[in-house]
Amino acid sequence: xxxFCKQGVAxxxxxxxxxxxxxxxxxxxxxxxxxQAVLRSQKLSVLWESPDVDLPASLNHLADHHAKLPNLxxxxxxxxxxxxxxxxxxxxxxxxxxxxxxxxxxxTVITPTEREWAxxxxxxxxxxxxxxxxxxxxxxxxxxxVLELLEHQPLEQGALVAALLRFSGMHPxxxxxxxxxxxxxATKSAxxxxxxxxxxx
Length: 201
What we know:
Number of domains: 1
CATH topology: Rossmann fold
Shape: globular
Strand order of the largest sheet: 2-1-3-4-5
Helix content: 40-55%
Largest sheet: 5 strands, parallel
Strand content: 5-15%
Number of helices: 8
Distance between the termini: 43 Å
CATH superfamily: Response regulator
CATH architecture: 3-Layer(aba) Sandwich
Number of strands: 5
CATH class: Alpha Beta
Order of helices and strands: HEHEHEHEHEHHH
Structural class: alpha/beta
């Protein structure tokens, strides 16, 4: 299957009207739906492609026709036919400016070793799936990471809350509590990202 039918190519060709464009290659289901919703909540243009896409051929085709390439690929590592790590190595050589974020929708925790291996293969990061009991805090950290890689605008917390509420099963009256939880999570994440003066990286 070739990525971007005529409609898709037209969408990408018009994509330069939008600040950033994310291409998802993800199995259908709840995990993919959450990713699509939270990314769109941040005013990102998102296209969700099926797992049988021929991604290298499609990206080469777009480049040959001077069409807009995605700014970031979001790929689920469970898609074995795509061989995500091989794709990362290829992307690093052919499109070095293209960020590739790998996710594993079936995994709740990513170990430091797994993350370092993914980065060694050319991925910008490796993220775990969304957890029902940590949907808000997990959603905040994941979206913040994507925005950081895209050098995009600051997190739009209200829009993200609204997107997450559709999947959390919480009543809208709980929105203030969720917003407070997001604020605490964002603050902790910001503090954790600060490197002490004199630290060796």
